[in-house]
Amino acid sequence: MSVKNYSTTIYNWLNGFAPTFRSPISEGLFDESHPQPNDYIEYSSSTGNFATSFIQAITIYSKSTAYTQVMNIADAIESAIGERGIVLREEWGYVKIEKGNPFYQDKTDEDSNYRAGYINLLVTIYQKNV
Fold first, then answer.
1. How far is the C-alpha of 60 from the C-alpha of 119, rounded, in Å?
2. Is 20 strand, coil or helix?
3. Residue 56 CB contacts under 8 Å (≥ 6 apart), including other chains
4. Cα 70 vs. chain centroid, distance in angstroms?
5. Can you tell me the distance from the alpha carbon of 41 to that of 21, in angstroms, rounded to the nearest whole number?
6. What is the DSSP string of 45-86?
7. What strands lie across the sheet with 39-43, from one edge to the other?
8. Which residues pair with 60 in a beta bridge?
9. Using CA atoms, how far apart are residues 112 and 48, in angstroms rounded to an integer?
10. Is the pLDDT of residue 110 over 70?
11. CA separation (Å) from 53 to 48, 97, 113, 125?
């Protein structure tokens, strides 16, 4: 399985909901000309064996004192996945994403200027024979 293929696919999909960054975010990534977005997604890429489901955890951050925007992004992701999951088709194969359990939970150990929540995605990768 190609880690690069999966990482690119999941990054592009998540980036449709909010600016997305791989963990850890580098010091100096944001500056006056490239400020940190108010809302963003952070994740560490994970992979599993071919056709075996695994949990891909993501964290949604919002510069706010309320969880409203975190919940809006979580709801958008949940809506895109639906009850039966979503399939992201690529040249190299496809990725099936379903809701993990728990799907969402608040993250409470953050800076007081940010609110954050975790989402667990249940992911299965299928790669075409090349």
1. 8
2. strand
3. 10, 43, 45, 46, 97, 100, 120, 121, 122, 123
4. 12
5. 6
6. ----STT--EEEEEEEEEESSSSHHHHHHHHHHHHHHTTT-E
7. 20-22, 39-43, 54-63, 114-127, 93-107, 86-90
8. 41, 117
9. 35
10. no
11. 7, 9, 35, 8
CB 17 within 8 A of CB 41: yes
Q: For the chain, how many residues are written?
A: 130
CB of 56 closer than 8 Å to CB of 43: yes
Average pLDDT for 102-125:
89
Compute the distance between CA of residue 99 and CA of residue 94 in angstroms, rounded to an integer: 17
Tokens read off for 2: 């190609």
CA distances for 24 relative to 7, 19, 29, 43, 79, angstroms: 15, 15, 11, 8, 27
pLDDT in tens, 40-61: 999 988 776 677 899 999 999 9
DSSP assignment string, 83-101: TT-EEEEETTEEEEEEEEE
Tokens read off for 103: 């799907």
Unique residue bearing structure tokens 């108010």: 38
